[in-house]
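Bench notes, afternoon.
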Amino acid sequence: METSVERIIKTADRLGIKPADRLLLVRISTQTLQLFEDNLLVKSYIVSTSKRPPSNVKNSLGTPRGLHEIAERIGNGQPAGMVFRSRIPTGRHFSEFAPEELRTDDLITSRILWLRGLEPGENLGGEVDTYDRYIYIHGTRHEEKLGTPASAGCIRMSNRDVIELYDVVRVSDWVWIED
């Protein structure tokens, strides 16, 4: 039986993409993210993906599947719990917001790893473009929901874990998202 890593390598070969130094494997079914270096598992994290079914389509609010890369790393040096709006730090920790100030319950905190799809027609281009959908790996103020589907399409992590991961990964590292 083919492993996830073997499937990822086959997909990259088919697309003519050279291997990345690191791979993040997100499994929607188990709500986990695994960090691999040189095809060896380094660390596993509990995450939260979309509360809706997986989907690569714009406005679906589903977590997109397939091969992606980290396109941008945002938030270096910001304190844990910093809230970002439009990828800009607000200067405030999530605990400093009154309920009436919150435009959304899905705050983006601590760090942002912005994803870009690598599969044309699947998660790159047109109505299925992961980058244009603003799909991130990011921190959350709802750490108690990690391990269950609860996001609006992004991959949520604890603030401590996303900072730790951010310090290890680089732009162009791969992210594979599967059911």
